[in-house]
Amino acid sequence: MPRTFEVAVTSPHSTRQVFDAFAATTYWHDRYAAFGSSMTLDELDRTSTPDGESVRLVMTEDLRADRLPSVIARVYPGELKVRTTEHWQVGGDDRVHGTIEITVLGAPGSGRGHARIEPASGGSRMVVDGTVEVRLPLVGGRVESAIGAEFRRLIPDVGRFTTEWIDNHD
């Protein structure tokens, strides 16, 4: 049964500044380096529309068993690849809406999320609602719980990184 999670983070920066960071190739390369990630940025397309701007990203991460939570590494002792597609759109109201789709290549797992970044007192607030699904008998729920816990831990770290990155690049 899929597991859901919700995480909220605040930033002293505007929604537009956060969107512009997400739309910058250097942001992603710096973020991967900061987190020691093996992720690659396969596509980054920024588009202007009458309703605002959007950015679409496609990323691939080669996960090795030694970098996975132990419950997942026991189930998948080899390597896994994870493909993530993110779409962020900012409108005239300065609200940013995002969708996140995650596909695990070589394993029966996936994830999806919706994010919103809204103006807040002194900056902005991002809320991510996600669902993780691993279709494995007996252990799928434990793996889903571990992945959900990892997202709840990682998203605030990404928020802090994004704040520092904007501070250094604004």
From TrEMBL:
One Pfam entry name: DUF2505
UniProt cross-references to InterPro entries, sorted A to Z: DUF2505 (IPR019639)
Source taxon at top rank: Bacteria
Protein name in UniProt: DUF2505 domain-containing protein
Organism: Gordonia oryzae
Organism phylogeny: Bacteria, Bacillati, Actinomycetota, Actinomycetes, Mycobacteriales
